[in-house]
Amino acid sequence: MNLTVKQRVGLELQRSLRRTQEQLHPLKTLFWECTLRCNMNCRHCGSDCKVAPAVKDMPAEDFLRVIDTITPHVDPHKTFIIFTGGEALLRDDLEQVGLELYRREYPWGVVTNGFLLDEKRLASLMASGMHSITVSIDGFEEQHNWIRRHPQSFEKASAAIKLLAQQKDLLWDVVTCVNPRSYPQLKEFKEYLISLGVPAWRLFSIFPMGRAANDPDLQLTDEQYRGLLNFIKDSRENDPRIDASYSCEGFLGPYEQRVRNHFFYCRSGVEVASIRCDGAISGCTSVRSHMDQGNIYKDDFWDVWQNRFQTMRDRSWAKKGQCKDCKVWRYCEGSGLHLYDDDGDLLVCHYHRIKSN
Q: CB atoms < 10 A from the CB of 247, how many?
């Protein structure tokens, strides 16, 4: 399966758009890693969070101070704030921060494992102006509890999803990290999510970072990876009951715009930034810390956003190794930045896994 003429035209247009976006670098999404505390001990955690990490939660006033320095330079209605962690809902002041963002007219959302999302907490978040929420659920009970390493995690996540399904004025979706244990049951699991009322389902494979770096039990084979993409493609083409899509990671060659609504390009540092729990300024939160561009405790965030991030906006440095002579470099430009190790080497190439068939 090769790129079609239509795909190549679309990818050329996407490449032109990326050049423009690199120059303009409009800040469209800002992640706040508001805590590294977590009530799970997930096998695949990219940040290697612990229940009681050494890094303390960032004070809310420090984050809001940064927001106030950004506000004169952006349209708040077009800059989305996402609370992430760790487990964001472990913070008892999340609603206070959310309400302050709401007053400043920023839309905001939360990524959660769902464990603490009961009826009372959901009502509190929505009353504070929450715009969207994502709940992680990684398969049926046995598979989900295995990867999350908590005996109640599936029950709690399912209960949270049922609550969300009752809301009419909230954007929400479910995200699933697919691994060899959950892969064989994707069709049945899709039916389960549909029965719960899930409108949108994002799937991704686990990349070898954090705790997953040395655990082969978490990695799909190339055949399973292609099977995952084919499953998503078939769902999108033949099953309107749920909006299934693959995550943003990696260029997918012939699967481009067949498994998600957009063509790939890594937006980290181009349209997406993050403030880590220790104040570090980076692209998306999945990018390794060696790519941090500054720190809010010693740098002005907007100055960093405007004048740094060269390694994320100019990807010529990544044209090495297996990427050096790749025929689709002009569209991929080295894949997602979260797939690079601390030495700047690409750990996995999704396009290579696909074309090896």
A: 15
Rounded Cα distance, 66 and 58, in Å: 12
Q: What's the rounded Cα separation, in Å, for the pair 324 and 334?
A: 9
Omega before 86 cis (within 30°)?
Answer: yes
Which of 247, 213, 176 is closest to 47 using CA atoms? Answer: 213
| Dihedrals phi, psi of 261, to nearest 5 degrees | -80, -15
pLDDT tens, position by position, 47-65 = 544 444 578 999 999 999 9
From CA 174, how far away is CA 198, in angstroms rounded?
A: 7
pLDDT digits 0-9 by tens, 218-258: 889 999 999 999 999 999 999 999 999 999 888 999 999 99
Q: What is the CA angle 32-35-41, rounded to 5? A: 125
Concatenate the DSSP letters of all residues of 30-65 into one string. EEEE---B-S---TT-SS--BSS-SSPPPPHHHHHH
Q: How many CB atoms lie within 10 A of CB 289?
A: 11
Task: Give exposure, 26-48, as e/b (b: 16+ Cβ within 10 Å).
Answer: ebebbbbbbbbbbbbebbbbbbe
Which DSSP helix (H) or strand (E) runs through 312? helix 310-313
Please state, in angstroms and rounded to a whole number, the distance separating the CA atoms of residues 55 and 246. 32
Tokens of 92: 């008892």
Q: Encoding tokens for residue 50?
A: 């612990």
Cα(288)–Cα(308) distance, rounded to whole angstroms?
16
